[in-house]
Amino acid sequence: MTQISNQKETATYSKWIKRMAPDSRMLATHVSLFTALFVCWQRSDFNSPFPVNRKELMKLSKIASIATYHKCIRELDAYGYIRYQPSYHPKNGSQIYWPQETNDA
């Protein structure tokens, strides 16, 4: 991954965080989970979709409740911040489709 590509992806992430700021539906848990998703996206060399693991995301986002995790990831999907494709299989990770750049922020 080149330095320029890495900067572009980080700028895209920043735009999405700025878009969340005025969104009254967003709580700290949403932002924390979105940040954890960014870390996983970065680890997957910015490929989309990329596999995720609930335990890892909960650890990275500091979300302790499974119910809160599921609520937040489903809401991030419903609100258009990510596209979430659950696996329902214990060994196959769910897939996250990272959002395209936004001009809204």
Provide an overview of this structure.
This protein has a 3-stranded antiparallel sheet. It is mainly alpha-helical. The chain has helices at 3-20, 28-43, 54-61, 66-78; strands at residues 50-52, 83-85, 94-97. It is globular, with a radius of gyration of 13 Å. It has one domain. Strand 2 (83-85) and strand 3 (94-97) form a beta hairpin. The chain starts with a helix and ends in an 8-residue tail after the last strand. It is built from 4 helices and 3 strands, in the order H-H-E-H-H-E-E.
Short description:
The chain is 52% helix and 10% strand. The protein is mainly alpha-helical and 105 residues long. The protein has one domain (3-97).
Question: In terms of topology, how is this protein built?
Answer:
Blueprint: H1 3-20, H2 28-43, E1 50-52, H3 54-61, H4 66-78, E2 83-85, E3 94-97
Antiparallel strand pairs: 1-3, 2-3
